[in-house]
Amino acid sequence: MKKTVKKILAEIVYYLYKKKILKNKIKLMSLDETLDALLATEKSLVRFGDGEIVILKGVDLELQKADLEITENLIRILGYEYENLMVALPGIFDGVEKYQEKSRLFWKDHLLFCRNIYNRYCSKEKLYGDAMVSRCYYLFKEKSQCGGWFDKFKLVWKDKDIVVVEGERTHNGVGNDLFEHARSVERIICPPSNAYDVYDRILEECGKVSKDKLFLISLGVTAKMLTEALFLQGYRVLDIGNLDMEYEWYLSKAQSKTEIGKHKIIGLEANEEAGYSEYLQQIIARIGPEDSHETSR
């Protein structure tokens, strides 16, 4: 009964905003406009998904516990202080009709309970990017345009030396051609969960990289703070989130959220057995939970 009432309430509130009876305060680029801006400029990108917004409500995520310091950082970044650091939000404020049914229901429910968070902390004057640039396959009802979006994204790092900062299970670009246009690929491997506990060490290792290299960050909530910090140090940084997972689903024409084998591979021996020798050669630093510098924060 509670689920039914919640669904009806979410539909009513969504309808009121859709018909502009209630005013939407968030201004967002389209997905294509977001990608075009990344191609035409040297802007960095930090993306907010439902998880970051849920943390602002004080709720733990599966891979990151809520924390006051994290909350304060996320609120600051949501305020969108720097023109060359594009902040992206879920593309849900102008309608969710382009998404498949499960996704439409999810985002309507999310808006019902979280729209006040966006309205409280987002700038009413700024134009935000569309965070779905990295979730550009599964949730879309019409998938014919997905390949073009991935092709555009891959052009952002064409002929660039890239440094991928990711969790130990992520394996961005391993077994697919996501990074085929990159000049070179290096990796900094981090814990698969609660990476913020070793944030200082991650930032320290990233700071050793030449500033002419492009950072691609795939590190959950921690990616938001890391992207901002590296941007302020003079790097170009793209928070790509789950782009590789979406790309794997796109390549396999998945109709549901299927498991990806490489996400189960962890440790040197398992990667060697999987034949991921090139991936292992690309690793320039490995940071584990034991590297926490909590006393320094």
What does this protein look like?
The protein has eleven helices and nine strands. The chain has 297 residues and is of the alpha/beta class. It has one domain. It has a five-stranded parallel beta sheet with strand order 8-7-5-6-9. A four-stranded parallel beta sheet has the order 1-4-3-2. The termini are far apart.
Quick synopsis:
By secondary structure, the protein is α/β, with parallel strands linked by helices.
Summarize this structure as a short list of keywords or feature phrases.
297 residues; 14% strand; four-stranded parallel sheet; 40% helix; alpha/beta
Tally of structural domains:
1
Structural class, from helix and strand content?
alpha/beta
Low-confidence parts: none
Overall body shape: globular
Count of helix runs: 11
Q: What's the Cα radius of gyration? A: 19 Å
What share of the residues lie within helices? Answer: 25-40%
Strand composition percent: 5-15%
Task: Report the sheet with the most strands, covering strand number, pairing sense and barrel closure.
Answer: 5 strands, parallel
Give, in spatial order, the strands making up the sheet with the most strands: 8-7-5-6-9
User: What is the CA–CA distance across the termini?
Assistant: 46 Å
Strand runs, count: 9
Q: List the helices and strands in order.
A: HEHEHHEHEHEEHEHEHHHE
Instruction: Write down the overall mean pLDDT.
Output: 92
Topology:
Blueprint: H1 2-18, E1 27-28, H2 31-40, E2 44-47, H3 50-56, H4 68-78, E3 85-89, H5 101-121, E4 127-130, H6 146-156, E5 161-167, E6 184-190, H7 199-206, E7 214-218, H8 222-232, E8 236-239, H9 243-252, H10 268-273, H11 277-282, E9 283-286
